[in-house]
Amino acid sequence: MKFIKSRVFTFLFLILLAFAIPSIAQNCNNADECKKLISEYEQKLAGLGEQRKSLSSQIQFMDTQIYLTTLRIQETEQLIVQTQNEIENLAGKIEGLNTSLDYLSQLLVRKIAESYKRREIPFFNIFVDSDNAQVLANRLKYARVTQENDRRVAFQVQQAKLNFEQQKSLREQKQAELAELETKLEAQKSDLDSQKANKQKLLAQTQSDERTYQALLNRTRAEFAAIQGIIAGAGTESQLREVKKGDFIASVISTASCNSSGEHLHFTVLEGGGVVNPFSKLHDIDHVDRSGGDPWNPNGSWDWPLSPTISFNQGFGVTSCVSSGYCSGIYSSHNGIDIAGSSLNVTAVADGTLYRGSYAVGCSLPYARVKHKDSNIDTLYLHVYVN
Questions:
Q1: Most exposed of 10, 43, 57, 79 (fewest Cβ within 10 Å)?
Q2: What is the dihedral of CA 87, 93, 94, 98, to 10 degrees?
Q3: 255 burial type by CB count under 10 A (0-12 exposed, 13-18 middle, 19+ buried)
Q4: What pTM was computed for the model?
Q5: 56-105 residue pLDDT tens
Q6: 339 has which bridge partners?
Q7: Are 265 and 384 in contact (CB under 8 A)?
């Protein structure tokens, strides 16, 4: 009976979700309409962000966020089409200007050649060969008109050349804008994929059950509070021994444990007492992305505390969990990385002193600390049995 009731509840809950945001079905037809809808749903998202206390409100927030990203994609796609059309129009103008410039240049060359020929006849000869004053006046008038025409052609050539260069410059600018828009579009599509993945991940974790969602939320809050306490040095620690880089120091707990829903290592790096991105210390390695799209950019030299292939569950800083809205109600920045490896063995990433620690927030969260030798760096390894 309880199973049937649970199924009925889940079914009704999903129906409610389907009608939670009835207005999220419209598309924008032009860039201006997109901007208007984006502004409208940004305000809705801000309002929903303050109301996420239940699974239904969290899903509504995620749906609104997904729709908002979809609108931004549509806006960018329309701007891309608009920019492509502008580039095509500019190409036509440039071709026409090029043809005009060729014609005017050839005309100017002929004019210069004619002027050069006229200069071969001395003005005195024109005066002597003239039968009368009227003929002389006509010849002088023709010379002035010809000079004026030559100047006008030269000016037209200069203007055509200037216009040609301006249109080429504008086309180059539009091509650069197009490249930026295409890059922006790829990033927006990646964000959309991450947001959809986070929603599906949340539904899978909670099985659309409100009590499961609240338990998950409370566990995440407790874990964050424990990690903050450990970073601040409030954990209970005992010194064990000196270790070398690569030495076995602990085992990842293979089941759900204190404030952890399953097997994973939370790895944090402290430098001078403050957290730094572990990717700035670790080298690149084979991995499987299970984070929902968090950046993967290791650029250091350390070996990893787990053996590959690494399962990458959450990154450092503003992660997809934060941007999706679920984690942002708990923390604004993730202070380490969540990973799993091909085995449960945890190794030290550098030489130093090993400490066994625990921190109690409703339950006891076990961890290891390695104080690196001749350095102001500590590394923390959470959700482990320390050996």
A1: 43
A2: 170
A3: exposed
A4: 0.62
A5: 888 888 899 899 999 999 999 999 998 998 888 877 777 766 666 666 66
A6: 265, 312
A7: yes
